[in-house]
Amino acid sequence: MASEPRLPVLPHGSPTTLSGLSETFSFHSSPEAFITSRVLAFQSSHPSLADSRTPIRAKVLNRNIAVISSYDHVKQLLCDEDIAASLSAGNAYDELMAPFFPPPNLLLADSPAHQSMKDKWKARMASLPDDMRPIIQEIVLSHFRNISSGSTTDLYESMKDLSWKLILGIFMSSPTEREQAQKDAAEIEALQEDLLRGQFSLFPVSINVRLWQSPRARGLAARKKLQKLLKARLQNGNKGCPFTTQSGADEDDVANHLLLFTSSLAVKSLASLLTAIMLNLYVNPNGQTPQGSQSPASRILGLEITNNRNELLQSIILETERLSPPVVGIMRRTIKDVTLLSGQESIQDTIIPKGWDIWLYFVGAARDLSVFGDTAEGFRPERFYGSSEGANSGKKGLAFGTGPKSCLGEGLMREIVATVATTCLGMDAGSHGKVELQANGDDIPKGVQGWLGWQRDVKPEEWAKDMKQLPTQRPVKGLMVKIVHNLDAK
């Protein structure tokens, strides 16, 4: 006699007894420690499900949360049309994002409006990666020329400075407007920083009194000033904006999206990725790669065929994205009940009720052993190279999301990272020299090594001590590195 089908169950685990405010502080301090501690507690009480990556229940500000760290579940939620139609990004981000990035925009739009908007913006952005390559290279060379060869610098801060130059150089400046663009850039950067602090403030109330403004109030005021500044530049025919000369480009639509594209969140995401790629290219614990004593940068340059060099670099970029996504994850809110299939007969499916929030934790999902094998936690330069395992499987990281609402800027961001790398390595045509980063891998804190995939089984408390994860991932303390270059003077 066949057994009766088992009904799906709610996400496992009970909300902690901490107050909602304490839970919020805990998550804000370290999402990795917050989530991992709950996963470990669940595994301890359910040893038979320890390797299943089943959804875990949490509670923040009295909201029920389903934490997703399974790669296949992320794919189900974001790629399955029926399930995706039961989720809302707009509702999930209504308090966090909408006041600071007013809709309509790609970030907050849901289907079907999202798809038509994205198609329009994909067409506008199609040629941008190729068009911007010379500008990116020029900005990178200028940035490193301004650093004395042999001097020591904080890598993340240097990459953040470079990222501001790149983002504003791509979207807001042109050679003929350079002086005005530099003045506007300083103002845009300051206002975007105020906006971000207001957005992620743990005091989510807007208060304006004569002698004091809450961070949220300052952030909202910054958003209004930014909108005014961006619209003024568009109305004045800003030649540096790649969208102003396109026929049919609506001014409000372009201004709304420029607010997103030039946001401090976008800049810090790029800085996070550049920090990780530079460390992965030039520095390894004990000076070793999994395959030998050469750094990945040396191994790239040791290849005689240009295509092989580019393929290995691309593999390293993809592996960096997989292990060290700048943004730890995204949120969705269920507008209908959602059932996630376990894919295993011994494990019941999971139902996430209407009105729950879903946190898709990309850091955990992209290290899923069932997808990436025993080396899922470790950095492997060749993982996506040539015919090696996983190169053509489509099983890549989640740094830019996946499915219809994946990040519009994925192609441009990859082009920026690749051009920064090839410029530093001296791989570009008409090379002006090389840039090298020097540091002792043993001096890199354990939590940072866990972020990079250099060390497995890093404890949650070590990750929390050494890494900031909101709004983007970056080291808590400055990583001091020596920059050595032989760039010719311009």
UniProtKB/TrEMBL annotation:
Gene Ontology MF term list: heme binding; iron ion binding; monooxygenase activity; oxidoreductase activity, acting on paired donors, with incorporation or reduction of molecular oxygen
UniProt keyword annotations, A-Z: Heme, Iron, Metal-binding, Monooxygenase, Oxidoreductase
The keyword Transmembrane is assigned to this record: no
PROSITE patterns according to UniProt: CYTOCHROME_P450 (PS00086)
Any Pfam family the entry gives: p450
Signal peptide: none
Gene Ontology annotations of biological process type: sterol metabolic process
Record family assignment: Belongs to the cytochrome P450 family.
Name of protein: Cytochrome P450
Originating species: Lepraria neglecta
